[in-house]
Amino acid sequence: WLGDRVVGLFIADYLFHNYEKPRGWLALMKSKWASEECLAYLARKIGLSGFVELGRGEERNGGREKDSILSSAFEALAGAIFVDSASYEVTKKVLEGIFFGEDGIEYALLSINYKGLLQRWCLQQCSSLPEYEVVAENADGGPYRVAVKIQGRVVALGEGKNKKKAEQEAARRAWEKIIGEENLTYDMFEDRSSSGF
To answer: What's the distance, CA 170 to chain centroid?
Structure first.
């Protein structure tokens, strides 16, 4: 219980001081980094599974590799470090080494499915799907350029070495524009030029 709060504070503190992003983006990243999947990844990274005590049934059922158990164990470890050190600064230094050392968790920035986020938002707000259009082919080894449209209006452009990466980049830019607008509604897509925001 305490470890969950320690990890949450650490992530919020780090994001606040290292990323000048809108509140919506910060909340999204905090949720991602504090997720069961990411904390289990960190637990595996430091070999925490070897120190978890399990009942015979859970051991037989592969509990040592379950994300739910590993993420809880990681939170417990964070709480124990905080209690034993009696210092947030000491805890922060230890967690920074785990979170952002070699093979750290900032890979999560790259693993967000922005196309999925944008699709869900469009369905909820516009009752339609975003459209992706290739505006420049991969000629002579250059990048693909893709435009993402919402309600027929270009919202953002993205580049990538293949079409899939270009679409993800376009979706990321569109999503960051959306969460950066505090009062963005369906009506804001009305009467806009095709050049986008």
So the answer is: 16
For 160, other C-beta atoms within 10 Å of its C-beta total 17
Catalytic residues: 4, 75
d(CA 92, CA 78): 9
| Residues of the chain below pLDDT 70 | 101-112, 138-139, 180-197
Residue 103's pLDDT is 59
The DSSP symbol for 188 reads G
State the DSSP string of 78-124.
HHHHHHHHT-HHHHHHHHHHHHHSTT-GGGHHHH--HHHHHHHHHHH
Q: pLDDT, tens digit, for every residue of 78-114? A: 999 999 998 999 999 999 888 876 656 655 554 567 8
Question: Is the pTM higher than 0.70?
Answer: no
- Give the list of residues 6+ apart from residue 120 with CB closer than 8 angstroms, or none: none
- Are 148 and 154 a contacting pair, CB within 8 Å? yes
Q: Please name which of 41, 170, 169, 48 lies closest in space to residue 108, comparing C-alpha atoms.
A: 41
Q: Does residue 118 contact residue 132 with C-beta atoms inside 8 Å?
A: no
Query: What integer pLDDT is reported at residue 109 of this predicted model?
Result: 52
Residue from 134, 126, 129 nearest 116 by CA: 129
